[in-house]
Amino acid sequence: MGKQIEVAGWGHQMRVAADVERPETVRALESSCHGQGIARGLGRSYGDAAIAPERVWMMTRLNRMLSFRNGVLTAEAGTSLGDILRVFLPRGYTLPVTPGTQWVTLGGAVAADVHGKNHHTAGTFSRYVEEITLCTADGEMRRIGPGRDPDLFWATVGGMGLTGLILEVSLRLQAIETGYISVDYFRTRDLEETLNWFSVHDASYPFTVAWLDCLASGRSLGRAVLMGGRPTERAELSGRQPAFPMPHRTLRMPFSLPSGMLSRSVGVAFNAAYYGVHRPGAQQIEPWWKFFYPLDVVDDWHRLYGRRGFAQYQAVFPAEVGAQELAALLGRIQNARHPNFLGVLKRMGPSSPGMLSFPRAGLTLALDLPMQGEGTSRLFRELYAQTADLGGRAYLAKDSFLTPDLLQRMYPRLSEFRAVKKRVDPAGRWRSALALRLGLAGGS
Ligand SMILES: Cc1cc2nc3c(=O)[nH]c(=O)nc-3n(C[C@H](O)[C@H](O)[C@H](O)COP(=O)(O)OP(=O)(O)OC[C@H]3O[C@@H](n4cnc5c(N)ncnc54)[C@H](O)[C@@H]3O)c2cc1C
């Protein structure tokens, strides 16, 4: 029997007390592996994907790196991306795809089929996964991959832990010359210009992203600071610069701020300042850590939002959705006068074969909204309905508010996923709070 502990998603707006197991070896896991529940990595999913009312298997002590051959790393699923980078970056290898935080486990990266700033050129994380070991509901350890039980593999990729416990991952790393990214900064005046920027520059840069000033309104709605990055070559560094920089020091957020301290006016000031300091035409050579993980500078930064926490809206829209539709969506948040601090916009490339994998060709928009009771829930429901009407979908790793019927509209391959889940987990053993909310748990 594990210990009863309160577990939450990164947004801390949903919490449950669960029986928590922290296996240190696969053998220990085998003996604790009974009953219903869900695997958990570093808890960086925002909503209720890694919490369950029954049991949670925290996988972070299964974090050994097992082998590295011909560029392929095999490691236990609780290994964090940050730990992989600390070992491999100084040796000239990096992750082919990384999300916006290094504090994600290999298991969590596969289960959400994460994407990064290079999605338009590199696809999702699963493209580089050669095999995984999965413990299914019958206790069997299955080695699966794109060429080995592909249905189970593509249901597990993006399957949010609902097909079993991922124990090991074999991932192809990427060789690099330096641990820096050469970044060009741009600024746009409105949404039209922002979307145009992607059309013009996506072909020139492997990494692109826009930080949206989502509080600018009227004719400035959708203005942004945009970044185009590419790996820095050795010859671009000055003689004194080390080719592989060390990670930056982090600051701690020792306690939660009172809820409500991050008001709309703080958001306006923050966004205006961010827009103001990034001068167009600026070029910089930035350490990998700074370019990819700016938010990791403050540990536990979710505490800025207080005890009530926050939620993230992230959706992807088909390529035909343009400035007019996005402006209507941003306008809805502004009309509700809801605070909104961080807005990220990016153009994505084609989908992965993962049945519940989030990315698809088009635009993705992510916004962080502090929880303000029923008003926030209502706003999310409206945004999601509008998203589905536009043919878009919400990201399960960020979600707290979807309903089963919206899920059905957003994920056309849901029935394929359910069929695989039924095959390997007929009693619905693997179930998170998200799965229960969305009717994905299965069983009777
Ligand atoms: C600051 C920040 C920036 C982010 N940026 C991005 C981004 O750019 N792109 C992106 O795609 N995502 C992004 N994310 C989301 C994050 O990458 C995903 O939520 C990821 O799944 C978190 O991994 P984790 O190890 O914390 O897993 P958890 O949050 O603990 O779990 C996430 C899901 O994975 C499952 N899972 C975890 N480990 C296992 C395992 N061993 N076996 C089976 N299932 C498992 C859980 O059951 C759950 O369903 C970001 C999150 C934060 C906080």
Q: How would you characterize this protein structure?
A:
- The chain is of the alpha+beta class and 444 residues long.
- It folds into 2 domains: 65-176, Uridine Diphospho-n-acetylenolpyruvylglucosamine Reductase, domain 3; 180-406, Alpha-Beta Plaits.
- The protein contains 13 helices and 21 strands.
- The protein has helices spanning 26-32, 81-88, 106-111, 119-122, 150-156, 191-201, 264-277, 288-292, 323-335, 374-389, 404-410, 414-424, 433-438; strands at residues 3-8, 15-21, 37-40, 55-58, 65-69, 72-76, 93-94, 129-135, 141-144, 165-172, 174-175, 180-188, 207-212, 224-231, 251-252, 283-287, 298-299, 310-318, 343-348, 362-370, 393-394.
- The strands form 5 sheets. An 8-stranded antiparallel sheet has the order 16-12-14-13-19-20-18-21, sandwiched between helices. The chain has a 5-stranded antiparallel sheet with strand order 5-6-10-8-9.
- It is globular and about 60 Å long.
- The mean pLDDT is 92.
